[in-house]
Amino acid sequence: MGGTELRPETKADAAYRELRRRIVDASLAPGSRLDQEMLAAALGVSTTPLREALRRLEAERLVERAAHRQVVIAPLSARELHELYQIRLQLDSISVEMAAAAADSRLVSEAERHLAPPGPGDPHRSLNVNRAFHRTLYSGSGNAVLTEILDLLWDRTDRYRILLTADPTDAEVASAEHRQLLTLVAGGRAAEAGKLMRQHLQRSVDRLNGLIGDAHL
Q: CATH says 11-73 is which class?
């Protein structure tokens, strides 16, 4: 029985991946309007795959349709931040409690791989390392539906979290809390792990509120 042939990345896939990166790191500023023809030329694609990529980004609420078919980068919103973390404070905590209840050496070993702090001046690596650590823990819950929901929430949270990567103090505190979380998970201390996760996320959202203000609440 032959294996399934993997589809090569299309131009729309490549455009989506690059645009998403630029939105997350604010190379494309929140609230800015996109000139689709200029953007297509810059990406080396026609407008057709670009529009497909933009539809995917619109589904993730990273871009919005404005008047006269204009597309704008979705602005950062304190309301959206509040709503995202209102859910994550609950689900991340539940997931880490479930992971602690079922933790094994494989989970602990995988999470340890993502404990090393990223190098200075590399916000994308910092973002990716942080997400990889958290994803290892919540996928350790063994609940595929919960993992899928959290993946979607993280997709929406990334462009907020990247604001914290410029602060080395935040990275040091987060790294220390990650080590504490892993110790609790490895020891099967579910309730304590859930409590620490809530504190860990609340610290992040408090810092982010201070960075973006509450103008949109």
A: mainly alpha
